[in-house]
Design brief:
single chain; 7 helices
């Protein structure tokens, strides 16, 4: 089993080297799908909602992976790839003030309009109501992930690391929303 995992990882790294954007997009899509599948199960869905799952995979594949790929390349160009504490802090700060709020806003809009199929006015009102708490919660967690990512991960693995953490984060947020709904019903 260990040999199979090692060989698979080596093949993955080769693909990452040969086709970085494609590999990161596919990885982000697959991890988004895993996150949504687990979240649906833990939320009590009896059957997997395939449309929702595919739309989440599409978001990870078409946006999450490519955006992360170019964002991390840009940060390394802006800060010359250095990993001293001051430079890492600047990267994390810039990421948290630009791409983090943008990603959260875009996801809430995408989820409301595309995944849930709600009209724009409902989505706009929900975003207006929920975005501040989503963003504040995000700022309590993602700067730590950003620090680890920029300090310890090589450039080619940063999107994969971020996508893996986002997979776990998505499950956590879904469970949190479920427990808040249960508390309100009680």
């Amino acid at each position: 089993m260990g040999t199979l995992v090692k060989r698979s990882w080596q093949q993955y790294l080769i693909q990452l080297q040969l086709h970085p954007l494609r590999t990161k997009a596919i990885t982000a899509g697959v991890l988004a799908g895993i996150s949504d599948s687990v979240a649906q199960k833990l939320s009590g869905f009896e059957r997997l909602q395939l449309r929702r799952l595919l739309l989440k995979v599409l978001f990870g594949f078409a946006y999450g992976g490519p955006f992360g790929h170019f964002m991390h390349k840009l940060l390394d160009i802006l800060f010359k790839g250095r990993k001293d504490r001051k430079t890492v802090a600047k990267k994390v700060l810039l990421e948290q003030l630009t791409s983090n709020p943008w990603n959260n806003m875009l996801f809430l809009i995408y989820y409301g309009l595309i995944v849930e199929g709600r009209p724009w006015l409902q989505v706009k009102n929900k975003v207006k109501k929920d975005y501040p708490s989503v963003q504040l919660t995000s700022w309590t967690f993602w700067p730590i992930v950003g620090w680890i990512n920029h300090q310890y991960m090589p450039l080619q693995l940063r999107v994969i690391f971020h996508s893996f953490v986002a997979c776990c984060w998505g499950i956590f947020l879904n469970l949190r929303a479920r427990s808040l709904t249960s508390v309100k019903k009680a």
